[in-house]
Specification:
Helix content: 10-25%
Distance between the termini: 32 Å
Number of domains: 2
CATH topology of the largest domain: Immunoglobulin-like
Low-confidence stretches: none
CATH superfamily of the largest domain: Intracellular proteinase inhibitor BsuPI
Mean pLDDT: 87
CATH class of the largest domain: Mainly Beta
CATH architecture of the largest domain: Sandwich
Shape: globular
Number of helices: 4
Order of helices and strands: EEEEHHHEEEHEEEEEEEEE
Number of strands: 16
Radius of gyration: 19 Å
Length: 218
Amino acid sequence: MPGVDSFDLEGQVVGAAWYGAGNKIVFADGQQIFSGLVRHEMLHALIRVPGHPRDQFLDRCGDIVDCLGQCISDAGGPPAFSTTAPIVAPSALTVTTLIATNPVSLSADSGWLPLTVGVTNHAPYAVQVQMPPLDPGHPPGFSFAYSITPLGGGHAIGNGYAALDATLLPFAPASTAGATRRFVFGDQPILPQSAGDYDAAGIFMNVATSPMLLHVLP
């Protein structure tokens, strides 16, 4: 919807909406660059059911799609994480990297590449991880991050971080929804400026994944 940053949907002011009739998604002008919002509406279009089923929006796709306000209410309330779970070191968890499209094209994709860093708790009980403090006067301590370097070594030519505004990051028990927490880097272009082969790695605190090969086409 050009020229507006929000619109009315059944009495609510929203930035985007899915319509079952025709399975269509509508974004207010500028809202289509917010990847969590885009994936929220895409999930509606994929499952094609009214409301916000908990098993989809908070369980299977938790941390991947935005779910706030009415979404959390429809889903039956926020995830029930333990506030007394033991605190473990990041090294006790498994860190993974997912690149949604590989190879990726500079001309076709304009520098955009969704890169997901996942962190999984394999213990049969809930755990928490201490988050680094946020200090506006110093370089921020990151929780999730990524690095893209030329194949074979060299200085990073693409990197980014996300410092979560939280003291503890909770994980549900293994074998239940929530055992994996994720962060998707995709709200801004992250591709290198030149075509070629690169090493890409996801990072959680001080734990990095093994580099994976990223092919960047012209």
